[in-house]
Amino acid sequence: MTLIRGAVPYGEGDPVDIVVEDGQIAEIATATGNVRDRAGDVIDAHGLIALPGLVDLHTHLREPGREDTETIETGSAAAALGGYTAVFAMANTDPVADNPVVVEHVWRRGREVGLVDVHPIGAVTVGLKGERLAELGAMARSAANVRIFSDDGMCVADPLIMRRALEYSRGLDVLIAQHAEDPRLTVGAQAHEGEAAARLGLAGWPAAAEESIVARDCLLAGHFGAQLHVCHVSTAGTADVLRWAKARGTQVSAEVTPHHLLLDDDRLATYDPVNKVNPPLRTSSDTKALRAALAEGVIDCVATDHAPHAPQDKDCEWSAARPGMLGLQTALSIVIQTMVRPGLLDWRGVARVMSERPAEIAGLPDQGRPIAAGEPANLVLVDPARTWVVNGAELASLAGNTPYEGMELPGVVHTTLLRGRVTAQDGRTRP
Ligand SMILES: NC(=O)N[C@@H](CC(=O)O)C(=O)O
Ligand SMILES: [Zn+2]
Ligand SMILES: [Zn+2]
């Protein structure tokens, strides 16, 4: 048994005692102190907010193939320390997760590590090449029980392939997640096509390359009766397209990354490739529009797009650097900074966009559940009063490419529990 004493669920109302037994919430006692200490752990949670464990629909764990930058073990540690109890691992590994063997490896390794539920995402097309559909059914039926398919890193650009993928997904009851980037509009692109890139002489990645694919895919999903998920929405225009599509009943969901909520292309001036990411950092009016769209529900959730890279692939000249940023350990703090502090979301809203909606979108029955008796004890305890300073070298990831280096951020993850077991506490994992 574990007793969580004095936490405030969703930051609302009076502190409660949460009794955890056999992986579940056994009891919630409203008058704290009434539950007697029994055998087991007691977590002093006075001053802490309890939220359902966070769920990340978009993580790059780099195993197999780039275990020098992240492994399922180190990525799971970063996730648990960041308050996550489930993550979805993207398919752009080497070999690509486009078959049952690779997705089953990721699934099994995640279980062995045991810090967070690791759900592999399968590739939509063989080798992420965009030419032939991968064996979606075989991956869905494998032990890994793949629920989400994505060619992330690459766009499923061919409209006929995308149509077929959506049609199959409907039959298999799985979700296609699109990295929306028209490749013909982003040949050689290095940064958001706008004033900052023009001044610095960086080839532009226009907003239209994202928005045109999102509009197309919303139409395909609508016409063929399928469900679509849009990865890392980065522009105000994409939010407008989503608002329109949702208003006409399209089954579309969307995510925004913490970095697109906080950072903009003012950052390019240093030419520091830590700021290089795909889709690129946009303008400050985009970040404003994305925050509003997330608050409004037009964008459903926050996903990290945690993308570790080795120093030799990142600490080099801008054009040679790989795009991507770490995100798992900083996501909650960035959401507090960009959404909670300005009053755009309350803690209930944080639970919605970082846990409940992602769990619903992915169809996870045991994550993103209410904090109530009889529910699985997947929880995160957050200290809203404390701040911390980001130090890339101290993060659990093998890579250190955080764009938040040296920044003081609000909100500290105190404890993460996965099915009642403490996976992270006071900045350390508990395997
Ligand atoms: N986001 C990125 O900039 N990079 C991702 C790929 C992706 O999410 O498109 C990666 O795998 O490194
Ligand atoms: Zn992507
Ligand atoms: Zn990604």
TrEMBL record:
Q: Which residues take part in binding Zn(2+) 2?
A: 152, 179, 232
In its UniProt entry, what is this protein called?
A: Dihydroorotase
Task: Give the record's cofactor note, including how many are bound.
Answer: Binds 2 Zn(2+) ions per subunit.
Is Zinc among the key words of this record? yes
Keywords attached to this entry: Hydrolase, Metal-binding, Pyrimidine biosynthesis, Zinc
Query: Which part of the chain is the Dihydroorotase catalytic domain?
Result: 49-235
Asked if the Swiss-Prot or TrEMBL record annotates the protein with the keyword Zinc-finger, the reply is: no
> Gene Ontology terms, cellular component aspect?
cytoplasm
Q: Which residues form the active site?
A: 305
**The enzyme's E.C. designation:** 3.5.2.3
- Which pathway does it take part in? Pyrimidine metabolism; UMP biosynthesis via de novo pathway; (S)-dihydroorotate from bicarbonate: step 3/3
Originating organism = Actinocrispum wychmicini
Q: Which cofactor does it need?
A: Zn(2+)
Q: What reaction is this protein's catalytic activity?
A: (S)-dihydroorotate + H2O = N-carbamoyl-L-aspartate + H(+)
Please give the InterPro entries that the UniProt record associates with this protein: DHOase, DHOase/Allantoinase_Hydrolase, DHOase_cat, Dihydroorotase_CS, Metal-dep_hydrolase_composite, Metal_Hydrolase
Q: Give the stretches traversing the membrane.
A: none
